[in-house]
Amino acid sequence: MDGRVTVPSAVCSPVKLTFQGEIWYWRGPAAPFHFVTVPEEQCAELRAVSKIVSYGWRMIPVAVTIGGTTWTTATFSKNGGYIVPIKTSS
């Protein structure tokens, strides 16, 4: 994945992160879902704003752009970092 993640916030300036990552498949309840793991450097930036913008389970609302497609979702905390969900269209 080569895309952009923006953390919108009414209490601080939006954080814009651009990174590349491998998309991986998750087989579990509510599947099919794909995720991309946020690189550690960008995770540090997410951690810096997480106390201001996160909600339950340390999720952070984000706008994700891949190519010309943008959608809103939330990052998930996983193994000390973050992952971005990419829903498989039906």
Give the spatial strand order of the biggest sheet: 2-1-5-6-7-4-3
Helix segment tally: 1
Low-confidence stretches: none
Write down the overall geometry.
globular
Q: What is the chain-wise order of helices and strands?
A: EEEEHEEE
**SS-based class:** alpha+beta
The radius of gyration is 12 Å
Strand content: over 45%
Structure description:
Strands 2-1-5-6-7-4-3 form a seven-stranded antiparallel β-sheet. It contains one helix and seven strands. It has one helix at residues 40-53; strands at residues 2-7, 15-20, 23-26, 33-37, 60-66, 69-78, 81-87. It is of the alpha+beta class and 90 residues long. The longest helix has 14 residues, at 40-53. β6 (69-78) and β7 form a beta hairpin. It is globular and about 35 Å long. The chain starts with a strand and ends with a strand.
Question: Notable features of this structure?
Answer:
90 residues; alpha+beta; 16% helix; 50% strand; seven-stranded antiparallel β-sheet; globular
Summarize the structure.
This protein is of the alpha+beta class and about 90 residues long. About 15% of the residues lie in helices and about 50% in strands.
Fold topology:
Blueprint: E1 2-7, E2 15-20, E3 23-26, E4 33-37, H1 40-53, E5 60-66, E6 69-78, E7 81-87
Antiparallel strand pairs: 1-2, 1-5, 3-4, 4-7, 5-6, 6-7
